[in-house]
Amino acid sequence: MQRRVVQVRLVLGWLICTTGQQTTIRPDRDERLQEFPDPAKDINEIIVLCASTTWQERRDGLLSLQSYLAQDVKLTDGELKHLTEIFAKMFTDAHTKGMALFLDTLQEVIKMHKDDLEYWIYVLLQRVFMKIGGETLNSIASKLISTLELVRVCFGVDQLIPNVYRFLLDATQTPNVKSKTVMLNFLTSLCSQPDAAAAIVAPSNALQALQKIIAHSQDAKSMEIRQAAKVCIVALWNCDTAAVTLLLTELPKVSLCASADMCDVLLLDPLEQQDIASNIVHNHMRKTSTGSEPGSPMVPSSPKPPQSPSTPPFGDQEEVYKSLRRTTAEIQNYSFETLGPKLDGDRDTTSQDSGISQMSAGNDMRNDIAAIEEKMEDLNSRQFGLQSGSRSLPFAGLNGISETDSNGCRSLGDIKDSDAVVRDVIERCCIDHTTSVADKRKLLTQVLDLVHQGHVQGVMENFKKLLRIFIDHLAAGDTQNRILSLKIIAAIFQNSSLKCVWEKYVELITLKVLNAHSDEKREVIKEAETTAAAMARCVSPFDTVVYTLAPLIRTSPYPEDLGALKMLTKLVEANPEQITDQHLKEIMPGILKVSRVHINRATGTDHNESPVRKSSIFCMVALYKAVGEERLADYISGLTGSKVRLLRLYITRAEQQTTPNDTPKNAS
C-alpha cells in the first residue's frame, strides 16, 4: 500500500512539471508567432528576412514566404527579381536544414511564377547542376533532383535546351563528374519532350554543343561521363535524326581551345567526330535490335522516347547512317594488324575503323568504349614532304624511302624496324592496354631514339595517334613514362622535319605541358620546364602561342601560370622581332594587373607566390630588350615605385650582359 502511494505521488509530480513547462513554453510560441510579419501585407519584410545573414531570420523569412505564396498572392516583377538574386546566393548555404527549407520554398516559387522566371532559368540550372556535384546529404541531393524535375515540367523545352547548351559551353564553369553526368542526363530527358525536335537544333550554339557532347563521349578519366554522353547522343539522334545528321555534316574544324576541357577535340577532325557519333548510334541500334544487352548502360531502361514526326522508322535510321558513312568515309575494316604507314594506294582502298562491325553483340561496355576510342585515334594521313637540314636528318626519297647525309641511303631493314616500333607503340602503349609499365617504357624510349636519329617517317604518318598516347601518359601514374613523354615532345619540336605535323596541335600541346608543371613529382616538373623551354625556342606560329599563353598567365593556378610566364619569356627571347603592340596588349595585363580568381589568389606582379613575381619581372626584362622602353612606358607606369626600381635593376644587369648587336628595338 505504501509503495502504491509513492507511485501515485510520482505521477502527480510529473503531471505538475509537464503542465508548468507547457505554460512556460506556450507564451514563447505565441510571442514568436506575433513576431512574424503578416505575409499578406509585409512582403518587403519577408524579403529582408530572406536576405539576412542569420540562419534564424532566413528560416523565418522562408516560412513566411511559403505562407504568403499559399494565399495565391503573386509577387511583382521587382519583388521576384530581388528574391531570385537572394535565392542564387542561398545555394551556397552550408546549413543543412536551411538548404532543405530553401529548396522547398524554391519549388513553391517556381510553381507560382513559372511564367515569369524565363530570365532566371540559366542561373537556376547552373546553381542546381553545380550544387548536385558538391558533397551533399542524400536528402538534399534528392530535393535537388526533384527541383530539376520540376524545372523540366514547368518550363518549355525551347527555354531549357538553349540554357543547357549554354552551361555545357560556358568556359567559366568547372563542373565535376557528377555535375556533368546530371547535366547530360537532364539534356537526354529533354529529348523525350514533344517539342524537342525543333529545340535541339534551333539554338545558334547547337553545333558547338554537339561537339562538346562528342568530346565528353571520349572522356579519358570518367566512364560515367562517357556513358551519359553516348546516351545523350543517341537521344538527340532519335529526337530528330535528319536534323542531327545535317548538323554532323556541318561540323567545322576546331582551331582554338575554348577551355581545357575542350582541348581533346583538337585531335578530331570533322570526319572523325561524325564517325564517333555515328558509331555510337549504330552500336546502340544494333544492341537494341538484337536485345543481347538489356542491361547495358548504353541502352536506357526506360521506354524509348517518342520521336518527332520527322524521325524516320528504324529501317530508315539505318539507311541514314549508311548514307552518312558513305559521305564521310569509306566502309572501313580496322584492326591493329593494319595499323602503321602504308602506301597511298593502300590507304585509298583500305581505311581504318574501330572494328565495331566485328564486335559480337555480347561484348561488354569496356570493349565498346575501347573500339570507339580506337576510332577517335584514326588518322587518314597523307604523305608529307620532308626537307633536309643542316644536321644529319633524313629527307624524302623515291617511294618514301629516306636517305641520310652519311651514306645516301638506308637499308630496307631499318625502315621496317622503325615502322614496327611505331606500330608496337600504337598497339601496346595505349593507356588501358595490358602491356606492363616497363614494356611501355621501353617502347617509348624507342620512339625517342627514332626522333633523335631522324627516322621520323613513321612518326609523321601516325602523329595524331602517337600524340594521343603521349598526352594520355602525361596523366598516367608512372613517373618515368610521364618524363619520357615530355622528352619525346621536346625532341619532336626540336626536329624541323616534324614541324608540319605538330603546328596545328601547338595549343593543345602547350596546355598539356603547362599542366605537367603541377605534377607532384619534382623530376616531372623539371622535365616539363625543359620541354616548355625547348618548345618556346622553335614553336610556331608565333601569334597562336602568344594568344594561348596570355590568358593562361591571367587565369591559371600556380604553378601552371609560372610555367606559362617562363615559356613566354623564352619565346620573346627567341623571337624579339615578332613582338607587336597588339601582342603587348594581350601579354601585359596578365603580368602587371591583379586578376583575382579566388580569394587570396592573384596573378602577375602582385601574385602571392614569389617565383611568379620574379618571373613576371624577368618576362618584362625580355620584353624591354625586344621592344625598347618607349613602347613599354605606358605599361611600366602602372607599377609601384619599388617594382619599377627592381625592374630597372634587372634591366641594367641584362644590358651589361648584352652585346652591341642586341640593343633594344623601338620599331613597332
From TrEMBL:
Region (Disordered): 286-318, 335-361
Record field: compositional bias (Pro residues): 300-312
InterPro entries listed in its UniProt record: ARM-like, ARM-type_fold, TOG
The entry's keywords: Signal
Gene Ontology biological-process annotations: establishment of mitotic spindle localization; mitotic spindle assembly
Superkingdom classification of source: Eukaryota
Signal peptide: 1-20
UniProt key word Signal: yes
GO cellular component terms listed in the entry, alphabetical order: basal cortex; cytoplasmic microtubule; kinetochore; microtubule organizing center; mitotic spindle; spindle microtubule
Biased composition (Polar residues): 351-361
GO MF entries: microtubule binding
Protein name: Uncharacterized protein
Organism field: Dendroctonus ponderosae (Mountain pine beetle)
